[in-house]
Design brief:
By secondary structure, this protein is mainly α. It is about 55% helix and about 5% strand. It has helices at about 20-25, 30-40, 55-85, 90-100, 105-110, 115-135, 140-155, 160-180, 185-205, 205-210, 215-225, 235-250, 250-265, 270-290, 305-325, 325-345, 355-365, 400-415, 415-420, 430, 460-475, 505-510, and strands spanning about 1-5, 370-375, 390, 425, 480-485, 530-535. A 6-stranded mixed beta sheet has the order 1-3-2-4-6-5. Helix 6 packs antiparallel against helix 7 (about 140-155), helix 7 runs antiparallel to helix 8 and helix 15 runs antiparallel to helix 16. The longest helix is centred in the N-terminal third of the chain and has 33 residues, at about 55-85. The radius of gyration is 26 Å and the shape is globular.
Length: about 550
C-alpha cells in the first residue's frame, strides 16, 4: 500500500465542488466499477484502506490500458494507410503505414498508457473526413470531422490543430467548387463549432457541473507551463530538431525532409493528391508554430505530426516509383531497413527494465511489514512493489507553486530520520542532485526539465543544495544505510545531465535511439537506474 505522510497530508480545497471532483477524478475508474457491478463484488470497495489497491484491480487495469492503447495505435496505422490510399493509391498508403509502424517515436508512445495515442487517432480521423469534404462537398463528412476534432481536443489541447485542418479544407473546397463567396456562409462552420464543442464537453463531463471555467483554467495552466522557461539554455528549434531526429532516426529524418520539399514543389498542381499534401503540411506547420513558442518540446508532443509526415513521404515515394521504379525500389528498401533497424534497437530497451527488476527483488527479499521511502511520487518514476508500505511525499493543496512544492518536499526529505524507513530507494533523477565530482555541491544545481517534479532555474538555491547533501549523506552511510541492491547501468559519476546543443549530439541522437530523453515519460534503460539502500542501524546521522 501507499502510506501518506501525516505531516504533509493534503488538504481538500473548500471551494472545490464535490460533484466536479467526483466526475473529474472518478471517471477513469468507471470500467472498474462496471466490472464490480457485473460480478456482484461492490463489497470489496468498503474494505479498502485509502491507498490500498487489490492486486487484481492493479493488474487488470494495466492489462486493459495497454491493450486499449495497442488497439488504438493499430487504428492510427490503418488511418494513415487510408489517408495515403485516398490521396494517391494503395502503394502510397502502404508506404505511409509501414513508415509510421517503424517510426521509433510512434512505438515509444504505443508503449505508454496515456492520452497521446488516443488524441492522435481522433486527430487523424479529421483528415479523411476533410479530404472527402474537399472532393465531394459532403457536409456530413465535415461535421464528422468536427466531432473527431472535438474529441481530439478533449484528449490533448494541442489537437486543436484539427480546426486548422478543417479550415484549410474549407478553403480548398471554396477554390474548387463553391467559389470564394462560400467562405462567408456561416451555417456549416457554426454547426461544426457546435458539434466540436459538444465533443469537447463529452470528454470533460465536469463542465456540466462546474461550467466552462474548468476548461479555461486548464488552458491557462497549460499555457503557463509551456512558457515557464523549462528548456534550459537550448532554443525551441533545437528541441524540435532533436525530437524529430530521435523519433525518426537520421535516415528516415532525411527522407521525410526530402518528401516535404518534393511535396511543396508540387503545391501548384490541382489534384486530390495535392489537396492531401496541403492538409498534411498545414497540420504539421500549425503544430510547429505552436511548439515554436514553447520553451521545451518533448518527443510525445511531436507524435501527431509523425503520421502526417509519413503520408507526405508515402505520396512522394509512390510518385517516384511511378516515374522511375528502378530508382525508387532500392531507395524504399534501404529506407525501411535502416528505419526498422533503428526502431528495433530502440524497442529492445523494453526487454530490460531496471525498475521492474527492482520491484521484483523487493517482492522476493523485503518482508511485507517493512517500509520503503522514495522521493519520486509517481508509479512510473520509481519501483513500487506490492505489499510494502511506501513512504513518499504527498503534495499539499495549499502550496502555491513549484517553488513552494520544492521547498516543502526538501523539508520532508530532511526529516527522514524521524520516519526511519527500512529501505530507501534512489533513482537516476535523485542522483542528479550530485555534482560531477561526487562531492557536496557548493552552488545551485543546473536544472534539467523533468515532467514529474518541475524544478525551474529560479528554484531556491539552498533547497537544491540540501537535497544534494542529503543524497550524498545517504550514500556515505551517515544515516546507517548501506547499498542492498542496484539495477541498471550506473551513471558515470552520477552527474546531473547537461544540455548539449552541438551538432555532434544531434547526430548521435539520430543513430543511437537510447540517448537521454531529458524528462520524457518513456525513460530509457539508462534513466531507469534504481539504487536500494537498507537500514543497518539507528537513523540518526553519525557525528
Amino acid at each position: 500500500m501507499i502510506r501518506r505522510s501525516r505531516r504533509f497530508r493534503p488538504r481538500f480545497s473548500p471551494n472545490a465542488s464535490p460533484a466536479r471532483r467526483c466526475i473529474s477524478t472518478g471517471s477513469p475508474f468507471f470500467p472498474v466499477f462496471v466490472v464490480l457491478g457485473l460480478d456482484g463484488r461492490f463489497d470489496v470497495l468498503t474494505h479498502l484502506e485509502p491507498q490500498l489497491y487489490p492486486e487484481w484491480a492493479w493488474t487488470w487495469s494495466l492489462l486493459l490500458g495497454r491493450s486499449v492503447i495497442v488497439v488504438i495505435a493499430v487504428g492510427c496505422v490503418y488511418l494513415t494507410y487510408r489517408i495515403g490510399t485516398a490521396a494517391r493509391d494503395r502503394m502510397a498508403g502502404r508506404i505511409a503505414a509501414l513508415v509510421l509502424t517503424l517510426t521509433f517515436g510512434f512505438l515509444v508512445m504505443a508503449h505508454e498508457v496515456s492520452e497521446g495515442v488516443p488524441a492522435v487517432f481522433c486527430f487523424l480521423l479529421t483528415v479523411p473526413f476533410a479530404l472527402r469534404y474537399v472532393e465531394t462537398g459532403d457536409e456530413t463528412a465535415f461535421l464528422a470531422g468536427c466531432g473527431a476534432g472535438g474529441f481530439a481536443i478533449a484528449f490533448k489541447l494541442t489537437a486543436g490543430v484539427s480546426v486548422v485542418v478543417l479550415g484549410v479544407a474549407s478553403l480548398l473546397r471554396a477554390r474548387t467548387a463553391r467559389g470564394w463567396r462560400g467562405l462567408f456562409e456561416l451555417r456549416l462552420p457554426g454547426l461544426g463549432a457546435v458539434v466540436g464543442a459538444g465533443a469537447v464537453v463529452m470528454g470533460h463531463p465536469e463542465v456540466l457541473v462546474a461550467g466552462p471555467d474548468v476548461l479555461w483554467e486548464r488552458i491557462g495552466v497549460q499555457a503557463e507551463r509551456k512558457n515557464r522557461g523549462l528548456g534550459g539554455p537550448a532554443a525551441p528549434t533545437w528541441w524540435l530538431l532533436r525530437g524529430y531526429l530521435k523519433g525518426f532516426g537520421l535516415p528516415l529524418f532525411v527522407a521525410v525532409v526530402c518528401g516535404v520539399v518534393a511535396g511543396i514543389a508540387r503545391l501548384r498542381e490541382r489534384s486530390r493528391e495535392t489537396d492531401a499534401v496541403v492538409l498534411a503540411l498545414a497540420g504539421v506547420a500549425a503544430f510547429l508554430l505552436v511548439y515554436s513558442r514553447w520553451e521545451y518540446v518533448r518527443l510525445h508532443h511531436l507524435l501527431p505530426t509523425f503520421p502526417l509526415l509519413a503520408v507526405v513521404l508515402g505520396i512522394g515515394l509512390s510518385r517516384l516509383h511511378a516515374h522511375n521504379p528502378s530508382l525508387a525500389r532500392p531507395l524504399i528498401a534501404i529506407l525501411l531497413v535502416t528505419d526498422g533497424s533503428y526502431a528495433v534497437v530502440g524497442d529492445l530497451h523494453y526487454a530490460s527494465a531496471p525498475r521492474d527488476e527492482a520491484a521484483a527483488w523487493l517482492n522476493e527479499h523485503a518482508p511485507d511489514d517493512t517500509t520503503m521511502e522514495t522521493y519520486r511520487i509517481r508509479y512510473r518514476d520509481a519501483a513500487f512493489p506490492r505489499g510494502m508500505a511506501i513512504s513518499s511525499y504527498q503534495e499539499n493543496v495549499g502550496e502555491t507553486g513549484p517553488s513552494d512544492r520544492f521547498l516543502s518536499k526538501t523539508a520532508w526529505m530532511l526529516d527522514m530520520p524521524e520516519r526511519c524507513p527500512t529501505y530507501i530507494q534512489l533513482t537516476y533523477w535523485d542522483l542528479t542532485y550530485l555534482d560531477a565530482g561526487g562531492k557536496k555541491s557548493t552552488r545551485s544545481v543546473p536544472w534539467v526539465a523533468t515532467q514529474g517534479d518541475p524544478e525551474p532555474s529560479w528554484m531556491p538555491e539552498f533547497s537544491a543544495l540540501r537535497r544534494g547533501e542529503h543524497v550524498r549523506d545517504l550514500l556515505d552511510g551517515e544515516y546507517s544505510y548501506m547499498i542492498a541492491a542496484e539495477f541498471g547501468p550506473r551513471p558515470s559519476l552520477w552527474p546531473r545531465p547537461r544540455f548539449r546543443t552541438d551538432p555532434i549530439d544531434l547526430l548521435r541522437v539520430g543513430v543511437y535511439p537510447w540517448s537521454v530523453t531529458y524528462g520524457d515519460d518513456q525513460d530509457l534503460r539508462n534513466e531507469q537506474y534504481t539504487l536500494l539502500l537498507r537500514r543497518t542501524g539507528d537513523c540518526s546521522p553519525d557525528e
